[in-house]
């Protein structure tokens, strides 16, 4: 997945690594595989990576797959998207607000 902002910068979807203690550092070889695949169907002025980041996704240990809390009136916390936040967060937020 790729999304573009108003300055024509691209945010390229990520890879995922799972485990009790995943490596906190990006692997250049995996980033290159993603860029190589992107270039099979898209063309860009440059494919230079300007920044990377690592997300850490909390996992519940009580068998539940999501958490929904309202710590005070008008404030809501939902966690349960795992690594799919870029894809699902806005649609999910819309559904939660409509249901309230």
Automatic annotation (TrEMBL):
<feature type="domain" description="FAD dependent oxidoreductase">
    <location>
        <begin position="20"/>
        <end position="97"/>
    </location>
</feature>
<dbReference type="InterPro" id="IPR006076">
    <property type="entry name" value="FAD-dep_OxRdtase"/>
</dbReference>
<dbReference type="InterPro" id="IPR036188">
    <property type="entry name" value="FAD/NAD-bd_sf"/>
</dbReference>
<protein>
    <recommendedName>
        <fullName>FAD dependent oxidoreductase domain-containing protein</fullName>
    </recommendedName>
</protein>
<dbReference type="Pfam" id="PF01266">
    <property type="entry name" value="DAO"/>
</dbReference>
